[in-house]
């Protein structure tokens, strides 16, 4: 069975973005269906930004129906052995140019 978890920071960002983009809930459900089949994604819209063997950190474009020509970015960890996904960060590319590398480093420290 697939497990999807969220960090506290992710939940805060998600709630703010959900107010702006009403289709976000259904967009995330569609995204989860896709990454359940392809955990590290497929194509140029997915990039593995950290590979620690059992755990991979992936940056992906999350297509949002409320955004016509743009997309959100979502950072998640995929733990291969437990088949668990942990959402680390979500942001709108127009608000923030890049992911929070420090947050990713802090997340990786919790895995050690």
What do you see in this structure?
This protein has 112 residues and is of the alpha+beta class. The protein has a single domain (3-111), classed as RelE-like (YaeB-like fold, 2-Layer Sandwich). Helix content is 34%, strand content 34%. The chain has three helices and five strands, in the order βααββββα. A five-stranded mixed sheet has the order 1-5-4-3-2, with helices on both faces. The radius of gyration is 13 Å and the shape is globular. The model has no long low-confidence stretch (mean pLDDT 90).
Features:
34% strand; alpha+beta; single chain; YaeB-like fold; 5-stranded mixed beta sheet
Quick recap of the structure?
This protein has 112 residues and is an alpha+beta fold. It has three helices and five strands; from the N terminus they run βααββββα.
CATH architectural group: 2-Layer Sandwich
Poorly predicted runs:
none
Q: In order across it, which strands form the biggest sheet?
A: 1-5-4-3-2
Q: What is the distance, rounded to the nearest whole angstrom, between the alpha carbons of the first and last residues? A: 24 Å
Order of helices and strands: EHHEEEEH
The largest β sheet comes out as: 5 strands, mixed
